[in-house]
Design a protein that fits this description.
By secondary structure, the protein is of the alpha/beta class. The chain has 7 helices and 8 strands; from the N terminus they run αααββββαβαβαββα. β7 and β8 form a beta hairpin. The longest helix is centred in the middle third of the chain and has 17 residues.
């Protein structure tokens, strides 16, 4: 496991291929207007706007619990840790893993983030909780968002090439639970209150 602490000043502006963008745009959207958001990512100012949406009423958004992929192993897609080192989901094996795919421009994503942060703080050693930003501008917008949101437990993992979003063929936000052996249990597509009774019942399926 990586030891993660301190303030992060990573600045990456990676390129994403047209084929990858086409694949993502073809997918269904869970509460986020991706076509609108692609234009809103022009600068870091968008992260400030989205940070102000954190903690908004999650009940205003919808989600679906998907079990069709249960038992499948975690994909080997690469993303980046807060120290800029390459990471895969396999690095978290040994205990359950809850991985959240989000973006600073996605209002349902940031609305659920405080409850996900509270879950991460309460989970301790029982479960890894990892939030992986799909912003194409990477740390340029994600790091300021984290500083403004004041999260206590989550760290800014980055996937500016959207490798995980492509691997899961899903929309934003999507949160996937893996068991300790790296097998998918379920995924939640859309925003959910991670402190609510429904989420607690779902997590209990993996003994969390």
């Amino acid at each position: 496991m990586l030891l993660l602490s301190g303030v992060f000043a990573i600045r990456r502006v990676p390129k994403i291929g047209l084929a990858t963008l086409a694949l993502l745009m073809a997918g269904s959207i869970a509460g986020c207007d991706r076509e609108k958001a692609s234009g809103e990512q022009a600068g870091a100012g968008q992260s400030k706007l989205a940070a102000g949406q954190a903690g908004k009423d999650i009940a205003a958004f919808h989600h679906d619990v998907v079990r069709a992929h249960a038992g499948k192993p975690a994909p080997g897609a690469l993303f980046r840790g807060p120290d800029d080192a390459p990471v895969t989901l396999a690095d978290f094996r040994g205990r359950p893993l809850l991985v959240n795919l989000w973006a600073t421009w996605c209002i349902p994503c940031v609305a659920e983030m405080p409850t996900l942060d509270a879950l991460a703080a309460a989970s301790g050693d029982a479960m890894h909780v990892v939030a992986v930003a799909q912003d194409r501008q990477g740390a340029e917008v994600v790091d300021p968002w984290f500083q403004q949101a004041g999260l206590k437990a989550l760290q800014p993992y980055l996937d500016p090439e959207m490798n995980l979003l492509v691997a899961f063929n899903s929309a934003l936000p999507t949160t996937i639970l893996f068991d300790a052996e790296g097998r998918e249990v379920w995924r939640v597509v859309g925003a959910i209150d991670w402190q609510g009774k429904e989420a607690q019942a779902l997590l209990a399926e993996a003994g969390v």
